[in-house]
Amino acid sequence: MVLVGAGLVAMAPTAGAAGDFYTPPARFASEPGSVIRSEASPLLLQIPGVGNQWPGTATRVMYTSEYQDGTPAPVTGTLVEPTAPWQGGGQRPTVVLGPGTVGQGDQCAGSKMMNFPLAIDPTKPSIAVNYTALELNLMLINGVRVFITDYIGMGTPGVHTYVNRRESGAAMLDGARAALRLSGAPADAPVGFSGYSQGGGAAASAAEMAETYAPELNVRATYAGAPPADLAKVTKGIDGTFIVGGIGYAINGLTARYPALRPVLDRETTQEGRRVLSQVATQCIGDTGLAFGFQSTTRWTRTGESLSAVIDRTPIAKKAVADQRIGRLKPNAPVLLEGAISDDVIPYGQVKQLYQDWRAQGADVAMVTNEIPPIFPGLVVNHALPMLTTLLPATNFLLGEFHR
């Protein structure tokens, strides 16, 4: 299949097995948003080879984005062209979805589970879940084209750089570029971004990076639910919960981009701590929760301090975490934020701070505050429920901006 993009630097071989698809060619187009390769990807309950099935036609995609240092990076995702027509005026809009936390192992990539949202590998063992279907289908039935990114390092070679501000935002923006190119849509067709939790952070990053990173995109709106805008506060909030292992995902990703963190980890972590970091790197979130849920990170450090405390007193670690802060740039289109007062994963205060940071810069931003009372704190119930209750308001917000 020919690479699609301004700079054609190689010919990608036709993909065979699913595993082959995720291995990038030795040379590929360096321009962000270039399509490296693509193949059909049936959705749940669809019959392979039959065209124009409900709710849309899906294509697995490998496209070019950028690592933190600007080096070209191969990323995978899924483009879904809806069967339903677009009822609004102008060109059909495209929404790029950023998945919430699914894990750090390659088997967790959503594009590997579009035909069935659950994958069990008894050899690891591992259970992977793709839970983007609700938002995906809400967009498709309204005639909106959808692109779902797997993020950098998820399925493709290298470490998945979990909650990396620069790389997650770039993966979303370049996903929009790739979606427009592959679908044949005009370059100025409307674009939006959406996500919750990790996906909310990716959407928020894309929203504030759009003006400088992808100024040609016609961004109309962004929904960012429970975004981890301040990683320092999120690290403290998540410690001791069912998904405390998510801290391990973040540390693994940061260490891959800040090599000077490696000797710090070697010095500060116990053998048990290093084992946890190694194991979570190949796990999906359910695996991580079952293996390490409700542990305190004090068990992973030599001093018995929490990892947050270690970060606070280590300048290079503190800088690496601070680099992930969202809110220093101004979104160039309306944004809807969501935060829950009792969220037991993403602290409400740092979402409210993001709202205030953007408002101070003159951004067009609104915020929904969820007031569900605490339910089994630490079990992530108060993080999951707001995702569901804000789904329709978020969809209506995006559609409303597209209809303007």
Characterization of the model:
Keywords: Signal. It holds the Pfam family LIP. The chain has helices spanning 18-21, 133-141, 165-183, 198-213, 231-238, 246-257, 261-268, 271-280, 285-292, 307-312, 315-322, 348-360, 381-389, 391-402, and strands at residues 35-40, 56-66, 72-82, 94-98, 118-121, 126-129, 145-149, 190-196, 218-225, 335-340, 365-370. The protein is of the alpha/beta class and 404 residues long. It has two domains: 31-120 and 128-229 and 325-402, Rossmann fold (3-Layer(aba) Sandwich), CATH 3.40.50; 231-322, 434 Repressor (Amino-terminal Domain). A nine-stranded mixed β-sheet has the order 1-2-3-7-4-8-9-10-11, sandwiched between helices. The longest helix has 19 residues, at 165-183. The protein starts with 17 loop residues before the first helix and ends with a helix. Residues 1-6 and 8-17 have low confidence and may be disordered.
